[in-house]
Amino acid sequence: MVLRLVLGAIYTAMGIGQLASMDEMSAILGAYGLVHGAAATVPAVVLIAGELVCGIWFLTDRCDRPYGKGVLR
To answer: Which pLDDT score is estimated for 51?
Structure first.
């Protein structure tokens, strides 16, 4: 339970921080040499959205469900 809160807070903070520095994210991803210029915006948006989704999932997912029966609804 505590680990979920910590990971959720970290992922959410990372996503918010990268969202605040969106202009620099494209340049950072372009430095890896895979994409350059405007094409680096797409991976940056996907990365930020993924971190925000993971962080929110960690923070909001219920932890009281039993393992085994009924886990996959």
So the answer is: 94
